[in-house]
């Protein structure tokens, strides 16, 4: 009898897939994911629940693909205001263990966020040639505000990775929204500056003729123009650069984003290298949550390393998010001058974000 009941249920599910009533693609996506989750619950491995907000975009799609490949992820929620049914259907066919669910539009934001351990936010408009990241503020500030309100309500303990530009302002916006909601935990909010580190490692390796894997450049400050401050004097392995090399590398790292925006000629900014960097950073956050020792990355965070309330520097990630913030260490004269320029610009961007969120 029991066997017949199960068989009938299976036939009913298959029939629903073969003859879907109009407009229920999303429900089918969910029910099929739920069925897979039930199957996995019998023998599957535990992992973390991750939401990507802006999952159908230029960064969001490759980021979703790479997170689906991450063995630390058990559930992957893909949220956007457009196109998530297609992206979710496509990604859900990958034969990796994470269960994928799609969520479309504001009415489904809360479902997308409930129960998440990590939320990654690449939602928002990208630059076109001639624009600064701050030119994106008017549109992206509102998007980050709304998404942060959802996080405060539905998963206040989640680690939040903010990618949306201008990061120097969107992170302070998220912090203010969390403060208003009474859920702010500075150790769980991180602006993603990993792409600056990825670029720095690549460009330095090019100059030195090394494998980028062997190079580690700390990049501090923020994520726009002169606020991006590579500390070439602290590079691993230790290397002495000539003033000309230092000038060239600092400028290329600070303008890496603009280099891509110009090459893409109006079709957007870095998406593929950003997805790679975002996954590298998210994976570090998840390894920290799992309790791995010695997980150290750079991020734009609430900080007392300088007199500014937010600053990017090296942090140790752990079970509670940021567990230790490292001081800048000894800077050479060139870096000290760069730090002063970075702080001046950062102060304005942080203040702009804070006053927007307090309105
Ligand atoms: N931190 C970094 O290093 C870094 C690097 C590259 C790009 N970025 C920034 O990331 C953002 C996204 O870039 P992209 O190239 O993916 O842009 P994109 O336009 O290709 O994608 C953005 C996605 O966000 C979605 N979106 C818009 N409003 C939303 C909302 N309210 N809720 C959920 N989703 C929403 C859009 O529908 C779109 O799918 C930009 O602001 C860009 O400047 C940051
Ligand atoms: O440059 C941009 O606008 C996108 C991003 O911040 C980047 O550094 O590539």
TrEMBL record:
Record localization: Peroxisome
Catalytic activity annotation: (S)-malate + NAD(+) = oxaloacetate + NADH + H(+)
Positions with a binding annotation for substrate: 127, 133, 165, 199
Superkingdom as given in the UniProt entry: Eukaryota
UniProt keyword Ligase present: no
Enzyme kind, highest EC tier: oxidoreductase
Documented EC number(s): 1.1.1.37
Catalytic residues, chain numbering: 223 (proton acceptor)
Any one of the GO CC terms: peroxisome
GO molecular function: L-malate dehydrogenase (NAD+) activity
Lactate/malate dehydrogenase C-terminal domain span: 193-356
GO BP field: glyoxylate cycle; malate metabolic process; tricarboxylic acid cycle
Lactate/malate dehydrogenase N-terminal domain span: 49-191
Entry keywords, A to Z: Glyoxylate bypass, NAD, Oxidoreductase, Peroxisome, Tricarboxylic acid cycle
Residues holding NAD(+): 54-60, 80, 140, 163-165, 274
InterPro entries reported in the protein's UniProt record: L-lactate/malate_DH, Lactate/malate_DH_C, Lactate/malate_DH_N, Lactate_DH/Glyco_Ohase_4_C, Malate_DH_AS, Malate_DH_type1, NAD(P)-bd_dom_sf
Family indicated by similarity: Belongs to the LDH/MDH superfamily. MDH type 1 family.
Complex formation: Homodimer.
Name of the featured protein: Malate dehydrogenase
Organism classification: Eukaryota, Viridiplantae, Streptophyta, Embryophyta, Tracheophyta
């Amino acid at each position: 009898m029991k066997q017949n009941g199960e068989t009938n249920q299976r036939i009913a599910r298959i029939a629903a897939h073969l003859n879907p009533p109009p407009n229920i693609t999303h429900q089918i996506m969910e029910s099929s994911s739920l069925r897979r989750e039930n199957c996995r619950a019998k023998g599957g491995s535990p992992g973390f629940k991750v939401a990507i907000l802006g999952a159908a975009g230029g960064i969001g799609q490759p980021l979703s693909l790479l997170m689906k490949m991450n063995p630390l992820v058990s559930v992957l929620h893909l949220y956007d205001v457009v196109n998530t049914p297609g992206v979710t259907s496509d990604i859900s066919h990958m034969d990796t263990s994470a269960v994928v669910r799609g969520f479309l539009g504001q009415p489904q934001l809360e479902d997308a966020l409930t129960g998440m351990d990590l939320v990654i936010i690449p939602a928002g408009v990208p630059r076109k040639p001639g624009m600064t990241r701050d030119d994106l503020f008017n549109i992206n500030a509102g998007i980050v505000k709304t998404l942060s309100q959802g996080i405060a309500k539905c998963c206040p303990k989640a680690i939040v990775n903010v990618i949306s530009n201008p990061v120097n302002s969107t992170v302070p916006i998220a912090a203010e929204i969390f403060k208003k909601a009474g859920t702010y935990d500075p150790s769980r909010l991180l602006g993603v500056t990993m792409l600056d580190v990825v670029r720095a490692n690549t460009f330095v390796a090019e100059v030195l003729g090394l494998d980028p894997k062997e190079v580690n450049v700390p990049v501090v400050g923020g994520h726009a123009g002169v606020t991006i401050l590579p500390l070439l004097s602290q590079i691993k392995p230790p290397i002495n650069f000539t003033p000309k090399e230092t000038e060239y590398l600092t400028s290329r790292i600070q303008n890496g984003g603009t280099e891509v925006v110009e090459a893409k000629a109006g079709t957007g900014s870095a998406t593929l290298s950003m997805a790679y960097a975002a996954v590298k950073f998210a994976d570090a956050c998840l390894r920290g949550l799992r309790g791995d020792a010695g997980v150290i990355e750079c991020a734009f965070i609430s900080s007392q390393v300088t007199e500014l309330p937010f600053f990017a520097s090296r942090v140790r990630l752990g079970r509670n998010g940021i567990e230790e913030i490292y001081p800048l260490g000894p800077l050479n004269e060139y870096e000290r001058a760069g730090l002063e320029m970075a702080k001046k610009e950062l102060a304005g961007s942080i203040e702009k974000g804070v006053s927007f969120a307090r309105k």
